[in-house]
Fold these 4 entries.
Entry 1:
Amino acid sequence: MSDRKWQHKVVTVKVGAFKSQEKNDALIQERLNRLAVEGWELVTVAHPYGGHPRLYLRK
């Protein structure tokens, strides 16, 4: 067994309600790319009704 300990991070991406879906997608993609450069790996995404997407990451 490995003794590796994970670090976890939750990020809320505040997308614009009046932006196009393409612009919101680009915003989320840009944020994910920056986090990946820092070594974070996306685990899952939650998008509550009426809320902003929440990204759950680990490294």
Entry 2:
Amino acid sequence: MRGSCLCGAVAFEAEPPAEGLRIGLCSCPSCCKAHAAPCNVYATVPRAGFRWLRGEDAVRTWQSSPGKLRRFCGTCGSQIVADHPDRPTVILRVALLDEDPGVRPVERINRRYEVPWCDPDAPGIVSHPGEPSP
């Protein structure tokens, strides 16, 4: 699987785990704030199978909680991975993948923090396949 940040300065490749890619959604306050979104879509991948293809020098790191490093593009701010350096895996930001990974989310965590204002299936929400007309 290959992915890149919004501006394209950083690109990476990640091999899914042997048992297959498990995608999840996290609604914890840290993920929501870091991604400016009601949840973060993640998948854990083996550290040994994660490689920077370009732009590693543009990657910045911030420790969001003890032992958890968030790695992001220093130009556009796209979060790329969360990293606990003592673990054999990294937490990949699935929305940065350049192609459909072929699997769908299998879990939702920290649901007690879900925001009440975001329900994409709520009655009255108009859906557009692209940008709405002016």
Entry 3:
Amino acid sequence: MKISYLKDRTGETIDLNKLIFDNSIELNSSTDLDALIEIIGDSKYVLLGEASHGTHEYYTWRTEISKKLIQKKGFSFIAVEGDWPDCYRINRYIKNYIDSGKSAVDVLHKFNRWPTWMWANWEIVALTEWLKNHNSSLPKSRKTGFYGLDVYSLWESFDTIIKYLDKEDPKTKQTAKNALKCFEPYSEGEGQAYASATLMIPSICEEAVIDLLTQVRKNMISYNTDPEAVMSAEQNAHVIVNAERYYRAMVKPGPESWNIRDHHMVDTLNRLIKFHGSESKAIIWEHNTHIGDARATDMVREGTVNVGQLLNEQHKDDGVFSVGFGSFKGTVIAGREWGDVMRIMNLPDAIPDSWEFLLHQLDSKNRIIFMNEEMKKQIGKKEFGHRAIGVVYHPQYEYLGNYVPSLMPHRYDAFVYIDETSALHPLHMKPDGHQMPETFPFGM
């Protein structure tokens, strides 16, 4: 074990190893999570991160934490960094809506937008079936939900809302079709063609999508379907409005497009909380770069905000608890460029002096670190590089830009460290023997 020391503001020497040992526990089984659940307490918002979108252990440990929060703390729904229309199909399936799918595999096979592996994977199949079973004996008002927070599903949200309005509001359906027609010349490239066009004409379709949202919200009270379907229709209209704003901003330098996206995700959370009632509580699954407070990173210097920051600013008194995740080495699913085939890539050892390197040097054991007041006082002003991997990844160059300078005890309330992680199991790749692979590291 390498001994690590640090000078505090008074010049006193801090033994980092002892500090972390004293404020952490080993993580070997799901029982060890009970200490984390106790510290989370009555928090209304629990944010569970990940250092990549393609790591098995991040999904399985988040699943185990979520199960405990649902069973012991009565959490109302899981909201994820995914598209609303796709995730709403999971929500319908786990709540046993009519014609909602025969199995989780059936539902998740329909996730076909790149990167498909983020949600179409065997780990989410296991969570989905658990949620369905958990909900099976509960009244409708107490069933746990599953929703997508992201802003990318412009075309899917148009398709969904037009089908809905065809039955409920034919007049507003025409408004939706007119708005869709505005985008049709720019249908290539997931919004990039529209984004490029707005360089010449800054707001080609803005008025059309705002008109659609206005009409949907005005007429919602008259829709005769169940309340959740009405809520979903409104949400698809919000997605369309904010997707237009996002794609219009993405061609400009600066943080505007990122900020539009994270504001949309928080606004969606606020609508979900309102829909589920004042006593409802939310579990949020997103990348560390969204759930760890941006004010504790170099993001703040660029004017970038994120979900963690916004929730702390808006709902701190309700309890906002963020859990970061990371590892030292292993394998990961990613692509070499946007739209590339999914690949299992080697995850290099974390670079020296990074947060992950420090935890590996400690004793190479999995552990939960609690970012309490002692941690904030002792190392709250020390910046550590903290690894962040996206869906596009080049392991050989990660030291050039995959580490976010972070004040770790201020970025998270707790941190789950897995010394060696493995790649996610994508659903669209046939697993050996056509069987679900093990979805928890110790057979649970």
Entry 4:
Amino acid sequence: MHGYETNINAHFLPEFGNMQLSEITAESVQDFFNLKAKEGKAVQTLKNLKWG
């Protein structure tokens, strides 16, 4: 549970925190993952974010 909370606070809320769930599109999620990859996040981090 701690890992999920960490990912939510560190990654998801800064990107999507001011949006309604209905406003989050597949394209915005893909853009989020592309940005994280460009930031140099490890493959395992990207997998954890995907499954979280």
